[in-house]
């Protein structure tokens, strides 16, 4: 299993683009400098009226398949 930590900040308008299907993936740079891309559907539960803001942990299996995304701070 692999774990990646990163900070994500998206405005309400940016989140709206994900909800409307204009953008399918989110790309972040994790703490070690590696670029990670994952389906935008995984952030939906973290969206508030102001957007998304916080530190997250992404867990992938050994085949780079999604396991979990959780907000850690």
Automatic annotation (TrEMBL):
Source organism per UniProt: Pseudoalteromonas luteoviolacea S4054
InterPro entries according to UniProt: DUF2835 (IPR021363)
Protein name (Swiss-Prot/TrEMBL): DUF2835 domain-containing protein
């Amino acid at each position: 299993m692999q774990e990646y930590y990163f900070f994500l900040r998206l405005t309400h308008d940016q989140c709206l683009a994900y909800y409307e299907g204009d953008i399918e993936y989110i790309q972040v740079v994790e703490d070690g400098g590696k670029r990670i891309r994952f389906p935008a559907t995984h952030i939906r539960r973290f969206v508030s009226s102001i957007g998304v803001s916080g530190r997250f942990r992404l867990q992938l299996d050994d085949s780079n398949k999604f396991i979990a995304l959780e907000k850690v701070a």
